[in-house]
Amino acid sequence: MQNPITSLFHIQYPIIQAGMVWCSGWRLAAAVSNAGGLGIIGAGSMYPEVLREHIRKCRVATSKPFAVNVPLLYPNVQQIMDILVEEGVQIVFTSAGNPATWTSFLKQKGITVVHVIANTKFALKAQQSGVDAVVAEGFEAGGHNGREETTTLCLVPMVKQALTIPVIAAGGIASGKSMLAAFALGADAVQIGSAFAVAEESSAHPNFKDKIIAATEGDTKLRMKKLVPVRLLKNEFADAVAQAEANGASTEELAILLGRARAKLGMFEGDMGQGELEIGQVSAMLNQIKPAAVILQEIWKEFLVEKKKLAALEF
């Protein structure tokens, strides 16, 4: 399939694996890229030299294009950007910050830049900063989320109408049916996180994968909107956050409650009680741990089947 995104990234399928903290190491990125999608290394959970190691290992494991996701709110962004240039990374996804700060720097180095947004205002700002595409991430998504709580169903068509650059839909997408729905809304590709978080190659702890598989409807909630909005899977820590918010906790109090390395504790080290467990609403639909290539192919095949069904409908 050739469209603006497959042409931009030189990939076979318009399916992109999200750059998730503690889940998106080189093994997952390489597996998705080898399967014909775009794999992404999540730099948000890596020290600069660890990121360098993952980039090098990924390059050995795949000859296909892959990307690196960089949350711009991290304190060592300059080091990370320098490493991306030194290691010859060709595609960078930025998130959680102002794209104008780094887009021109990356573009001058010949790097394709994509920015993650959660509303039309920031989508326009991203386009003005010179990015090549945006990821429109709806309220359903895990990880950092939009304070507006705009769903993917509403966000994608609004962003598509406002922009002239390609739009990648994210949030609540884990099947061919939902991928087709995103395309009907105007998306040029989809970015998928939660479904790949439980892939065999994901660096997430087995305890976290099992908890995702066991999740049912309503087991995730958007929390910490005063600090950094994030969708959390229910556990003791999430309950403590909910209680603090109900009591009117300040940004500072929430920051103290969050502490340091809380996401690593849960998602990477396997503490399902006190860890921060970031995952999307679509976790309720996930029921099996599979290789990343199988996940991608199942999504793509279902997309084609459902597309044919819709084309055959008579009104």
What is the name of the CATH architecture of the largest domain? Alpha-Beta Barrel
**How much beta, percentage-wise?**
5-15%
**Main sheet characteristics:** 8 strands, parallel
Distance between the termini: 28 Å
How are the strands of the biggest sheet laid out side by side? 1-9-8-6-5-4-3-2
Estimate the helix proportion, in percent: 40-55%
In the predicted model, the low-confidence regions spanning at least 5 consecutive residues are none
What would the keywords be for this entry?
315 residues, alpha/beta, TIM Barrel, three-stranded antiparallel sheet, 15% strand
Description:
The radius of gyration is 18 Å and the shape is globular. With 315 residues, the chain is an alpha/beta fold. The longest helix is centred in the last third of the chain and has 21 residues, at 292-312. It contains 14 helices and eleven strands. The strands form two sheets. Strands 1-9-8-6-5-4-3-2 form an eight-stranded parallel β-sheet. Strands 7-11-10 form a three-stranded antiparallel β-sheet, with helices on one face.
